[in-house]
């Protein structure tokens, strides 16, 4: 065998290795691949201000905190932008997802610590017109971040519960102190009342004695009256007697009369003395009454203090219990259930997809329909010769030879495109309203790929088909659509925009997903240019081949 044949065999042997090696090399970025996927962040959150129990104010900007955590973590190439620019970037495919923090995010977070808690929602928007898997990846990453952030919020909430329980304990302690003061005040009041009772008893007893002793005052009055009468009589007698004539005769009698009167006076004096003795008892009774009154006066302040202590204790008890009651949340069953649900999952994630493709078959078809058309074109030239020896030696113009060969091959690849389009709509559920677009784009792709394979075979013979297999391996590993090309290694990202399969997949994806028509038009024009360039190069190739044929150097595969 010739060296050319050995080279062809070696190339065929290396084809499987090329496929495997290219796939391994394409995904060589490993765990850091996600860091290269561009995603936009729109933070619409508004600043909130809270007032602590001590009156100090604190600014709360939960959205900024979330954005800081997102941009500082692994996963996606985050870009902070505004809503308008983010929408434009998503539509153009410059970013694969837009994460939006709503304006009420901080308000929702703070509501967890209030009476009417609500969940804080974060939204992620993707576009299936550019990448199908990005939405799923973004959802996983976003859910992970919201779970992490939500756990931090839940931890703060639980910490607040324990803090409130401590404050409740303090309030109940104050209530206990108030109860102790109440008990002490009650004891003081009881003691004061006891002393008051004793004082009143003493006063009553003293007054009773005073009443008993006052009865002797009547006897004192009678004795004093008798004494006064006797003295009066004595005075009368003495005034009526002529003391000068009767001095000697009556001295004895007078003295006797004085003795009688004096006896009467003595008797009255005895009664007066008895009355005076009653006055002493009266004095004692009055003294006891005074002592009782004094004790009552001394007991008064203690009684007042006891009453004050009782009132103060009652006030402290009421204040403490009210404060404790205020810190106990409502026990309504529905409210408790709602609060528990919010506390368990305070931050939620909602995912929306522009131009959504719901069926997996359609997702796969956007890639495998163009891939099938490439393989179909390759298979056509395994069966058909690009040109015969007779045609090469004829007088026909090069353009006519190329057109004739392409017409034959395109008829076959056109039939392939028709069958694949029928599969899309009949089996995979693509809307029949898209038939003109899917069929037209499939036919354009088939013709472009046919022209390129004609170029390979007319220029390289059968070796061109081996080159087609190598190019297929490169394109399969470098073409996005199902996954973002940022997941691939840098060399594959660089070559992706220059590969025809990239535009074939992108155009078909845009049609099925209902994405931007402009991207479909760009893909169609690129494929048209690719096919036209292949035809032009094929004209040069057939001219060279005809010259070689004239020299007898035409490859056997063309004969």
What key attributes describe this structure?
abc type-2 transporter like fold; 7% strand; 559 residues
Strand content: 5-15%
Through-space gap between termini: 18 Å
Structural domain count: 3
Overall form: rod-shaped
List low-pLDDT spans: 157-169, 243-247
Helix content: over 70%
Average pLDDT metric: 71
Count of DSSP strands: 7
SSE string, helices as H and strands as E: HEEEHEHEHEHHHHEHHHHHHHH
Major sheet summary line: 5 strands, mixed
Taking strands numbered 1, 2, ... along the chain, how are they ordered across the largest sheet?
4-1-5-6-7
Radius of gyration: 60 Å
Kindly name the structural category: alpha/beta
Number of helices: 16
How would you describe this structure to a colleague?
The protein has about 550 residues and is α/β, with parallel strands linked by helices. The chain has three domains: about 35-170 and about 330-355, abc type-2 transporter like fold; about 195-325; about 360-559, no CATH class. About 70% of the residues lie in helices and about 5% in strands. The chain contains 16 helices and seven strands. It has helices at about 5-25, 60-70, 85-90, 105-110, 135-215, 215-240, 250-325, 335-345, 360-385, 390-395, 400-425, 435-460, 465-480, 490-495, 500-515, 515-550; strands spanning about 40-45, 50, 55-60, 75-80, 95-100, 120-125, 345-355. The protein has a five-stranded mixed sheet with strand order 4-1-5-6-7, sandwiched between helices. Strand 2 and strand 3 form a beta hairpin. Helix 15 packs antiparallel against helix 16. The radius of gyration is 60 Å and the shape is rod-shaped. The model is unreliable at about 155-170 and about 245 (pLDDT under 50).
